[in-house]
Design brief:
disordered N terminus; elongated; 12 strands; six-stranded mixed β-sheet; 13 helices
């Protein structure tokens, strides 16, 4: 046949095989209930004509796109500068690659995001979505949960009556371990640089830290950051007078990128770490081991979180999910900063 391969249609296959179009379609889809001789005839026609099933048509029949969205409701500059997001994305992508599932990413942080997110999740372009780094935003959560596809959250949703389809690290325990390490190191006037407090992870780390210090009758100084290096620098400057006056002798910084920026501010002002100031971070990114001084920090298992999220969304789609969230453990990695 002289027709180009790309223009071969299912009707051509049916005519060549001597069967109806419906029968040819059922064979191509792999449906049961077709006589063996007709299956053989259609497969032979497919091979001889070089027929390639139309992906869009296949999606209409199966209602599957074999595509999962990784959605991050944050500004793109934040996503590309925070190593946590890259670690999550790489882990999810590698997990789905083994299953021949396509991953698409979407970043959004502007007015009207709730409407756009809802439309994106309802229009049939993806089979499910993994949401990373979500703020306390009931309207946006409603948009996620009203979608007809499986939704999994990396990080516990910070809303009343949250869904259980989430994976997270035990952030509250991380705050407890940070407080214990500072106390063990002799700190008696601690401070905390929090993350954005409309995110559950930041609030949980703060509450764990405060609860453990309260057992020793200590109330920490508190400065809010936003999980960015820039906010870490600003928080470091805000705490500097208290550190120089001896009113703060140890700091728990709720992310490693903020910790690095704050430590540079303090070191530039002549503050020695750990001699004058003890510092604990959270994340254990690669740079923590090579920073000067190496940073004592809590492990945030991003790769495990990504794999757990991918596994959960697959289980939900297959009806095999047990209906429970996944909470991963954390532990302290001790280095010279504390």
């Amino acid at each position: 046949m002289s027709r180009k391969t790309g223009s071969i249609t299912l009707e051509d296959v049916a005519r060549h095989a001597g069967v109806s179009r419906a029968t040819a379609s059922r064979v191509v889809r792999g449906d049961a209930g077709v006589a063996e001789e007709k299956i053989a005839a259609v497969r032979l026609a497919v091979a001889e004509l070089g027929y390639v099933p139309n992906q869009a048509a296949r999606q209409l029949v199966t209602r599957r796109t074999d595509t999962i969205a990784l959605m991050v409701p944050e500004p793109d500059f934040f996503v590309f500068t925070d190593p946590f997001f890259a670690r999550i994305a790489i882990s999810v992508s590698r997990t789905f690659a083994r299953e021949d599932v396509q991953l698409v990413t979407a970043f959004a942080h502007s007015a009207g995001i709730s409407n756009r997110a809802g439309a994106f999740l309802r229009d049939g372009r993806v089979d499910g979505a993994i949401i990373v780094s979500h703020h306390r935003a009931p309207e946006l959560m409603d948009a996620y949960l009203s979608s007809p596809i499986p939704i999994v959250f990396v990080g516990r949703p910070f809303v009343e009556n949250p869904p259980k389809s989430w994976v997270d690290v035990d952030n509250a325990k991380g705050g407890v371990l940070a407080a214990r390490r500072l106390l063990e190191a002799g700190v008696r006037h601690p401070a905390i640089i929090t993350g954005t407090l409309d995110i559950a992870a930041a609030d949980d780390r703060l509450q764990g830290f405060r609860t453990e210090l309260a057992k020793a009758g200590i109330v920490p100084v508190q400065v809010e950051g936003h999980f960015t290096s820039e906010s870490g620098e600003e928080a470091g400057k805000e705490l500097l007078p208290a550190i120089e006056a001896g009113a703060v002798d140890g700091v728990f910084v709720s992310s490693d990128p903020m910790a690095f920026a704050a430590m540079r501010v303090w070191q530039a002002a002549g503050i020695r770490i750990p001699e004058d100031l003890r510092v604990v971070g959270f994340d254990d990114v690669d740079r923590a081991a090579t920073f000067d001084p190496p940073l004592t920090t809590l492990i945030n298992p991003a790769e495990e979180l990504g794999r757990a999220a991918a596994r959960m969304i697959r289980e939900i789609a297959e009806g095999a999910w047990d209906g429970e969230p996944v909470m991963l453990d954390t532990r302290l990695v001790e280095r010279r900063s504390c």
